[in-house]
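Morning. Coffee machine broken again, so started the prediction first thing and wrote up yesterday's gels while waiting. Chain of 181 residues, entered below exactly as on the submission form.
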Amino acid sequence: MDDIRAALRRDPALYGIHRVEVLLYPGLWAVWGHRIAHRLHRWGVPLLPRLLSQAIRQVTGIEIHPGAVVGRRLFIDHGAGVVIGETARIGDDVTMYHQVTLGGRGWRRDPKGSRRHPTVGDRVVLGVGATVLGPVRIGDDAEIGALCLVLSDVPAGTRLRAPAALPVPGRFAWSTSTSPN
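Came back before lunch.
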């Protein structure tokens, strides 16, 4: 029930009669499925947790490894393309938008059995397309803006923003006319 309340509080599209639509949110189903897969993973059940996480990924477009630790009231808005790696740790009341990756740096940098994924503090917001790689720590109340690439620790309360695109003068205008041959 906490997960539903969190979605209702954090999504401005859920008001009035639309509040019931929260039950259709893929982020909720992904988190609920992860809770089951994570418990099975902790109990040492072979194959089934990973099978469940892959089935959830097929249905929701959100991949959460069964080994990841997810805090209370995680809200994944839209959710398509979200990837959360095996050793990731996510605090309470985190908001995550689509195409967020909490991943490792790759097999050359991440030894087997090591902590390879980020630790995200409480009340953190991860904007659209944010990518956080490696065993970095995101402090409580941090805001990671859209399309930010994070490769080092972020102190609590910090706001990161990726540079906005700037128009470049040149011949990039699209033409609808056909060229004479």
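The chain has a mean pLDDT of 92. Going to sketch it on the whiteboard this afternoon.
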